[in-house]
Specification:
This protein has 212 residues and is of the alpha/beta class. 33% of the residues lie in helices and 16% in strands.
């Protein structure tokens, strides 16, 4: 069995104001760095064997902060990036609603059928993200504990895949900044059984400014 700690990145300024960042490389803000440090402290006693991260800086810096003094390489993979929001990148919710009335609400209600204009569908995100996770898991057949840091939308699709849940339910999973999720992974075969042991644990940032 492998134990997967799947962690969302810390806060960015765009998170704070509600600007859709998607694949745009937006760094952590001061609060996001504090969140990553708090998350690292919460996981300081966990022995990680390997670390995988999205290559976007907000996820990579979160991974580096959690790693701390551990002598581990962080492998980055662009397939773990957030959903490509296409024409919605860099826009606020209100701006998107004004230009595409009702479509953003449909995206949250039916992520399985809505594709962002000139961007990605959630199925496309799941396909690429899971290929990255699967490749990484298959590099080692031993029992191990793995840290994966990436993005809220991406994590939701990965959890659906791991639990054999329709991607139509991906927004049923809350994912706050530096949320910790833990999955006991046994494989993806018909007789395998993966267990979601911890979901959206953000207790480590409850006392920080700007917690979401």
């Amino acid at each position: 069995m492998k134990t997967l700690y799947i962690v969302r990145h810390g806060e960015t300024e765009w998170n704070k104001i509600g600007r859709y960042q998607g694949i745009t490389n937006v760094p952590l803000n001061e609060n996001g760095i504090a969140q990553a440090k708090a998350c690292g402290n919460a996981l300081k006693d966990v022995h990680f064997d390997r670390i995988l991260s999205s290559d976007l800086s907000r996820a990579l810096v979160t991974a580096e902060t959690i790693r701390g003094n551990r002598q581990l390489e962080i492998k980055t993979d662009e397939r773990l990036r957030e959903i490509n929001f296409g024409d919605w990148e860099k826009l606020l919710f209100t701006e998107i609603e004004e230009r595409w009335p009702g479509l953003i609400d449909q995206m949250y209600r039916r992520p399985d059928i809505v594709k962002v204009p000139n961007g990605e569908s959630f199925q496309e995100v799941q396909d690429r993200a899971w290929s990255a996770v699967s490749d990484f898991l298959n590099e080692n057949n031993e029992d191990e504990t793995i840290l994966i840091t990436c993005h809220g939308g991406t994590i939701r699709t990965i959890l659906c895949k791991l639990l054999d849940i329709s991607i139509s339910h991906c927004w049923n999973f809350s994912q706050g900044n530096t949320a910790i999720n833990r999955v006991f992974y046994n494989g993806m075969g018909e007789s395998d059984h993966n267990i979601l042991n911890l979901l959206n644990d953000t207790a480590h940032v409850d006392n920080l400014r700007g917690h979401v």
